[in-house]
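User: Show me a protein chain along with its predicted structure.
Assistant: Here is one chain, sequence first, then structure tokens.
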Amino acid sequence: QVQLQESGPGLVKPSQTLSLTCTVSGVSITNSDYAWSWIRQPPGKGLEWMGVTGYGSNTYYSPSLRSRIFMSRDTSKNQFSLQLLSVAPDDTAVYYCARMRSRGFDPWGQGTQVTVSS
């Protein structure tokens, strides 16, 4: 059974860097059949796809975040990570990691609340 679990601080100050990690179990993140994404949902708003890391550590980011987002992977720990620079209160959201397949995102992590506030 494939499972994903997000981890990281729940509170980040404005202008600082938000860092989250997704730990994957049940499948290797190096499996070329899959890619791995971050998605967020601000309060009262819809889901926003942020970026994906795929086979060979290729990464693709949402154009709206490209200037301040960075994704990486640690294959020894079967984890992939998100860094979002220069955060602002608008970055407050529930952040999800998910496996990306041809038919969509499945499964998802349970999500982690991140609040940007001083």
